[in-house]
Write a structure and sequence with these properties.
The protein is mainly alpha-helical. It is built from seven helices and no strands.
Length: 177
């Protein structure tokens, strides 16, 4: 409640500032905007961000009703996978839904996160391989240093191959769309 009151007071304070760059939002379909935001898992605070652009405070009920409808599409296995793939932080957007929907979403979220983390690991290994390859091609090294760098490069290539195979397994384990 304190947060809501603080947010409203903050908004009113900002709203009383110059109105020159604010727009007329009376033609916005707030239900559809909320639905769109909900369908991609945006937080309810997005309403405040949207409304700060308006010359008059819009009605929040329509936005929040639309967002709830959008969350129905988001809080699914597929929605969880997509959200996990994005690397975004889950902050409880689906916690208000039935246990079955929430469980399905969280299963998808974990599958998506695994793939996201695997892609991050592969990107890091690729960068390390580029760095070693660059080091080998641009600097003078003793035979021992060159041998150590070649061994490290080979090790990175093998690890990269293994991690790519694991990524392929994770992707193949996803449900068909």
């Amino acid at each position: 409640m304190k947060l809501l009151l603080t947010s409203i007071l903050f908004f009113l304070g900002l709203n009383s500032c110059s109105q020159l760059d604010k727009k007329d939002c009376s033609q916005i379909d707030w239900f559809e905007l909320g639905k769109k935001d909900g369908s991609v898992g945006r937080r309810s605070t997005m309403f405040l961000q949207h409304s700060l652009k308006c010359s008059k405070l819009p009605e929040s009920k329509e936005y929040h009703n639309g967002r709830k409808e959008g969350l129905i599409d988001f809080c699914t296995l597929e929605g969880g996978i997509d959200y996990g793939l994005s690397g975004a932080l889950y902050i409880g957007q689906c916690d208000e839904f039935k246990q079955k929907s929430l469980k399905s979403f969280k299963v998808g979220l974990e599958k998506g996160r695994l793939i996201y983390r695997q892609n991050e690991l592969i990107a890091e290994l690729n960068q390390n391989l580029k760095d070693v390859t660059y080091e080998l091609s641009t600097s003078f090294h003793s035979k021992e240093e060159t041998r150590d760098l070649e061994i490290h490069k080979q090790s990175l290539m093998e690890e990269l191959k293994s991690e790519r195979q694991y990524l392929d397994q994770l992707i193949r384990a996803l449900p068909p769309r």
